[in-house]
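cron nightly-structures :: item 1 of 1
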Amino acid sequence: MKSKISCCNAGLLRRSILRGAPLWGLWTLGWLILLPLHLLSNPSPDFIYAKEYTLGLTQVGTVLVFGYGLLVAWYQFAYLYNTRAAYHYGSLPLRRETQFLTRYLSGLLFHLVPAAVTALLTVLVAALQGTSCIRVAGTFFAATSLVYLFYYSLAVLIAQLVGHIIALPALYLVLNFTSLVLETILSEVLRTFTFGMVSGQDLWPDWLSPAYYALRRNLFGFTTNWDPNTGDFLSIRFNGWVPALIFGAVGLGFAVLAFLFFRKRHLESAGDVIAVPFLRPVFLYALALGCGIVLGRVLSAALFTDDQTRFVPLLFSMLVCTALGYWAGQMLLHKSLRVLSKGNWVRCGAVMAVMAAGMLCCRYDVTGFSRYVPAADDVKSVTLSYDIGQITDRDIINRTVALHQEIVDQRYAIEEQLREASSFTYFSVTYEMQDGSTASRRFRLPVDRYGNYDRSSLAWAASELQCDQKVLLERYFPAGGKPAYDQFTVEYLDTEWVYQQMELTYDQAEALAEAIQADIEAGTLGGDDISWPYERNQYDLQVQMAYYVSGQRLSYDSIFVTAAAEHTCAVLRELGVPEAVIAGESAD
């Protein structure tokens, strides 16, 4: 008769919980201090405070479980990395399934019980103060538990893949943040010799770095709704249920994978960096290429002139660091310095060749990325250098496409001039195509700021395009946007070099906005310092503006005032701005 498989061993569960008391005890104490004890010691007559505070700590909890899940998994499966301990537990009359499920369940209880106790005490304290917090306390328990399930299960899965106690936290951090770090560095590297590439361009989805993705998108935030007419409280809503459920479901998938790897794990792999044989080549080449990209960029910046036009020094640095990463990986995998075999030299050369081929393809535009210029008829709108407003005027679109084509045609001449120029300016463009797709490019154009500007230069042409009245009006008065007049301010340095700021009323802001628009249409306000014929006011006088689109604040912008802007200067005089400031006179 076949014996029944037990899913949990009481003795092992009790031992795991008791020995882990310092860990879950501190976790429990921390939450008791942050939630129920805080509410008890800070009673508030405002019943909304307790709800907002609890949901705020729910968001904090979804961040803290990132580290706590790692610590719990580290504690539960640290025995796998010690040969004696691994053989000891392997010799017990317990099936592997029982050992894994017992330890995994124990790790879940390390958070579920403290979270449940904290939620119940929060409800009790709120009830004593005359407030009902059952819903928000339940949200705290459920949301933090689901996110904890994700991070804890991920750490448990990694624990089965590695064989060294330091490898677990290292690989856990790598998997959570390498996507972000690698994209940042790789984007910077590619921008160095991929002409026109935009800084910060997404190369892959942000959710590959889940902790960063959750913080950046504010996945677990909340919204408080108020009556727009009376200002009375209406409701409070947690916004993170769907992400929390997705995190929990993915966490269960990680747990199943961890269970399958644990059943096949070799006890003798204790002490190895990677415990799963088929993952060792993946680790080796990922480490080599990662070191080549990240450390290569750092080495190039440290040893050579950090110039985007210097391709050879960067490529050399990346190849050196790729080789260093490969040999470091071999030494870690073999736990020996004796790795200089003929086969390893061949494989090292191969991975360096892959790195060089990839960089050369980018440099010489094999994909056609740098040469791409859209047809003007395919473009629906353009955004020039600023994130405010999309310009649909066909004349501006045609001029933008023509300038883009001219820049692409003169690529190598521009790169050569950048080495000698005293300065440079950026020209950025984002196209929205008729099919809804977008394309963004950003170019550095050489500028000689110590002499007369060359009217035939690309920088001058870009400046004239960006100073066009249609572009300036779209920038400062976005189509479909409503200026937030209550956010208009005038800022200046007076004749004593004291900073002054004036907040305008609605009527004052409306009059100033009309004057600014009139001066832009007259061509006396809003240009830059390359092709603009009027000198600025020594940057001593500016107007700050905010815009709303569809009821939402779009962004802020500012405009520096020149003495040639007659309408704007007239309004500023009426507002009380000193004549000396308007005229551009400075204190000695």
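cron nightly-structures :: done
DSSP finds 20 helices and ten strands in the chain.
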